[in-house]
RNA sequence: GCCCCAGUAGCUCAGUGGACAGAGCGACCGCCUCCUAAGCGGUAGGCCGCAGGUUCGACUCCUGCCUGGGGCACCA
């Protein structure tokens, strides 16, 4: 019976443990596994992995690195795992895994539901705050990043066993609702009670507000009425919220993002907790009046004058701003929801604000020891001019339009290839392309918005991964049910491309675990691309069904099946579909 | 002014202190009587923003500078 502890099939971790043991025998030093400095080796040197500890250790001990490497290698036992280690260059210790070990690892991980991931993950309850569109505004490309990144992280964390609670911190409160409700009253609902274009509606309201003093003053009175809970005003506000939710649901549906009304926790939901937040801060002795406002001055933040920077928790007019709402949300998430980890998938521009909020929540005791709060920051979407695309300018691309364009283009490509339209496939391909374009590069860097780039279907795109998966799926279909039996037949890795693919497949667990620790979905994208590349090369040079001999065919089918599982699962973690045919 | 983030091939981007810095797009040259050519193989293309420093070894760490983006009190 193979070990159910899939971590033991992490080649790098296993080698690191053995290297550290050998180093201890050779030097008497007790090293942590990371100190083995185990890295992937270069194909150029025929090494699957390399340990780089001899050089740094030699310096610490005042010894010759190659001689030390040799001593470590003498103490090293990698039987059953790899060929005897080779020393190269200034003291690199190179490893080449045994084919039999790779075969065993593949057999074990391919039958593991997690495909080798999450072996020793301690599950936690994690709140992921993402998407956060604004009521009465269209979702635009700026919301795409938070929605897609947050969704991918939620999927990955659920996959490894965390109890993930999504929280959609919708912007459903604020002074702008005065003018919006007045606009609603003036222009009325359309016959079906729908607003076809939220942005146009918003702009019309703003134009009235700026041009018509009477309208503006009615709008201000509306804000007061809204806050005071006037029934008619509240009813209008609720209609506006409901109508906006309908728009969001369309986008979430297109994106296949599982955010539902149940995950909505808008700013307004914290309204009745805001006075309590301020009181609690006061009794904790954290509150200071300043220029009529009530402020917290968390440690370590300076403003432009070099003075301590204020986090305003109650404005001079008695109202509350978003800082107070964010603090109330933390209390709710830790207190009522029982979160052990809080993730904020929010633009990098909010960094300072969030850190001030975290610092204040720590000082107030709402973020207890052991509860983590992390800003999962992402860069801005820039226009061609290099400036941030702002919804306020009204010129940014509506998400719904971008997504439809993506689907249309994918549909055209499908017709051009096959001559047959396939709407469902066009969606899977088009939406996947948009998502992958966003997920596949590092979160924190800004990027210039490009239709062409987001909708590309060649090269390192989701389509490449889907195509590799579809090819594998086709082969498996042709092979028929039961062709890939999970029996004890060894994988044969006689061809270079078979072996490379096998090694790549073993990287799934480490890749997923890496995303869990770094919260960087692009690591998974890069990994899946490597798998697809390895499979494509294998596919070209190794006939599978046409291999003739069963002893070649069976192991190749197994690799194919394993590849399909890794690609399907990996794409699913990114929120991208893996069709059976393309 | 202070703080944060980023600068890598023509373009878009990967890159865990390690060996000759990698992909995709674009360019050029090849490969479909054979499981999907949305593919595969190859060629060209690099003062890793600049200058110092630490190190046996720096795209990676430190300091300074340059360029771009962002933040710095009652919008969220």
Characterization of this structure:
Residues 1-6 have low confidence and may be disordered. This protein has a four-stranded antiparallel β-sheet with strand order 1-2-4-3, covered by helices on one side. Strands 6-5-10-11 form a four-stranded parallel β-sheet, with helices on both faces. With 582 residues, it is an alpha/beta fold. It has helices spanning 11-27, 53-61, 65-75, 99-110, 141-159, 176-187, 198-211, 213-228, 231-255, 274-283, 322-336, 351-363, 399-418, 423-439, 451-454, 462-479, 496-506, 508-518, 521-541, 550-574; strands at residues 38-40, 49-51, 86-88, 92-95, 125-129, 163-167, 287-290, 293-296, 311-314, 341-347, 372-378, 381-382, 447-448. A hairpin with an 8-residue loop joins strand 1 (38-40) and strand 2 (49-51). Among the domains are: 6-97, Arginyl tRNA synthetase N-terminal domain (Gyrase A, domain 2); 176-257, no CATH class; 401-574, Isoleucyl-tRNA Synthetase, Domain 1, CATH 1.10.730. It binds one RNA strand of 76 nucleotides through strand 1, helix 2, strand 9, helix 11 and helix 12.
């Amino acid at each position: 019976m193979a070990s159910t502890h899939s971590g033991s099939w992490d080649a790098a971790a296993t080698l690191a443990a053995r290297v550290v043991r050998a180093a201890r025998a050779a030097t008497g030093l007790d090293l942590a596994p990371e100190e083995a400095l185990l890295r992937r080796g270069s194909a150029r040197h025929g090494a699957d992995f390399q340990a780089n500890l001899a050089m740094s250790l030699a310096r610490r001990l005042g010894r010759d690195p190659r001689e030390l490497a040799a001593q470590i290698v003498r103490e090293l036992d990698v039987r059953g795992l790899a060929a005897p280690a080779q020393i190269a260059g200034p003291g690199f210790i190179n490893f080449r895994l045994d084919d039999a070990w790779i075969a065993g690892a593949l057999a074990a991980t391919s039958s593991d539901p997690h495909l080798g991931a999450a072996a020793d993950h301690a599950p936690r309850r994690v709140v992921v705050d993402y998407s956060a569109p604004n009521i009465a505004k269209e979702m635009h490309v700026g919301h795409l990043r938070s929605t897609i990144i947050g969704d991918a992280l939620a999927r990955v964390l659920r996959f490894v066993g965390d109890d993930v609670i999504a929280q959609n911190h919708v912007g459903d409160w604020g002074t702008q609702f005065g003018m919006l409700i007045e606009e609603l009253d003036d222009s009325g609902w359309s016959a079906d009670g729908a607003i076809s274009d939220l942005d146009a509606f918003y702009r019309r309201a703003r134009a009235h507000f700026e041009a018509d003093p009477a309208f503006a003053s009615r709008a201000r009175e509306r804000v007061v009425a809204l806050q005071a809970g006037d029934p008619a005003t509240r009813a209008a506000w609720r209609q506006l919220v409901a109508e906006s939710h309908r728009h969001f649901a369309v986008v979430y549906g297109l994106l296949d993002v599982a955010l539902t009304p149940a995950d909505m926790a808008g700013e307004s939901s914290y309204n009745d907790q805001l006075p309590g937040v301020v009181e609690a801060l006061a009794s904790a002795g954290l509150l200071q009046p300043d220029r009529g406002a009530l402020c917290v001055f968390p440690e370590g933040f300076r403003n432009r004058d070099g003075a301590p920077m204020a986090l305003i928790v109650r404005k001079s007019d008695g109202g509350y701003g978003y800082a107070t709402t964010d603090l109330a949300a933390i209390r709710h998430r830790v207190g009522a929801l029982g979160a052990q980890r809080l993730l904020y998938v929010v633009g990098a521009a909010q960094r300072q604000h969030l850190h001030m909020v975290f610092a204040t929540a720590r000082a107030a005791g709402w973020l207890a020891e052991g509860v983590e709060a992390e800003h999962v920051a992402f860069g801005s979407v820039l226009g061609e001019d290099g400036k941030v695309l702002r919804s306020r300018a009204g010129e940014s691309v509506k998400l719904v339009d971008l997504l439809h364009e993506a689907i249309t283009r994918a549909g055209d490509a499908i017709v051009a290839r096959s001559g047959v339209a396939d709407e469902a496939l066009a969606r899977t391909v088009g939406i996947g392309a948009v998502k992958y374009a966003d997920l596949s590069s590092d979160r924190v860097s800004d990027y210039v918005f490009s239709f062409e780039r987001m909708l590309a279907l060649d090269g390192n795109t989701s389509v490449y991964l889907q195509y590799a998966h579809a090819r594998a799926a086709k082969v498996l279909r042709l092979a028929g049910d039961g062709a890939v039996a999970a029996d004890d037949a060894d994988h044969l890795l006689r061809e270079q491309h078979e072996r490379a693919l096998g090694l790549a497949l073993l990287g799934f667990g480490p890749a997923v675990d890496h995303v869990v620790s770094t919260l960087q979905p692009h690591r998974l994208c890069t990994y899946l691309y490597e798998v697809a590349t390895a499979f494509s090369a294998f596919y070209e040079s190794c006939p599978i069904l046409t291999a003739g001999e069963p002893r070649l065919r069976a192991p190749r089918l197994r690799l194919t099946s394993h590849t399909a599982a890794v690609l399907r699962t990996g794409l699913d973690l990114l929120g991208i579909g893996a069709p059976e045919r393309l």
